[in-house]
Amino acid sequence: MQTRRTFIALFGLVCLWMAVAQEAKRPFDTKGMVWIPAGEFQMGTNKGEEDAKPIHKVALDGFWMDAHEVTNEEFGRFIKATGYVTIAERKPDPKDFPGVPASELKAGAIVFTPPPRPIPVQQLRAHNAFLQWWRYVPGASWRHPEGPGSTLRGREKHPVVHVAWYDAFAYAKWAGKRLPTEAEWEYAARGGLAGNEFCWGNELTPKGKQMANTWQGRFPVENTANDGFRLTAPVGSFPANGYGIFDMSGNVWEWCADWYTPDYYKNSPAKNPPGPKTSHDPNEPGVWKRVQRGGSFMCTDLYCGAFRPSHRMKTSPDTGLSHAGFRCVASGFPPPPKNP
Fold this sequence. Notes:
The chain is an alpha+beta fold. 16% of the residues lie in helices and 14% in strands. A four-stranded mixed beta sheet has the order 9-8-7-10.
């Protein structure tokens, strides 16, 4: 009996040592990350937008995911270490904008700007209605979220915004990580819950509690900020989901690795779907787009209701917006077992 106990104890120590050795070999730092175990889930929905249909079973390998969105503080360390210049900070190339005078091509980004008067609810979802509350602001960037004069002071722990897909990809590569596939993102967002409408259950505000940074009030002119925030919130301001991940609903949209097509779910692989090799958006044919997930502080059921884990969004990868950020994932070994 004693020999058996000794063998089990030694075996446990060997396993622990091997896990620690594997941990040391990781090309990325797992601090601030959560291990998402391998498993299967039902991806998509049979309600809502057509591009999120049909519900289909997906199996995924385990992976690591950032517990929260990349913050201004974290992104700043990347910029300092590499000297990287985001797309929003670069002067547009005249070759990409034929017919536009070079003097009018200025570095900047697209900033949420509430219109001067309410928009009838029935018009909110009209084609191109969003042009009424978005404005290109020269000088806007991750450093100046609302444009010249705005700063990051007091927003160090807020998610970085105005990052194009290419910017997010560059950060992830520098960190030894990558952007999540769309399937990985939704699997993690559901937090182990099956078929629920939200990341935390089936009630938007259980017992009256705000569970995410979204829009309250009449969009896009009045945000009552019942959740405590008018724009972005510090990461981790709301409860984590079942996997211990924060802000998978609301706050800022998050870039995924996948190209966007509206019909990918109809023939996507059942195991580790990587996303399509091409892109097509029926609303803007010829403009290739990447997937974004999770919704933002601007989301409301009056407009998009995109804070649901099944909702899909698409944006051209060279575009930075004041409600869009990202988080990273990484493939690798699971965490070492706890001491026996």
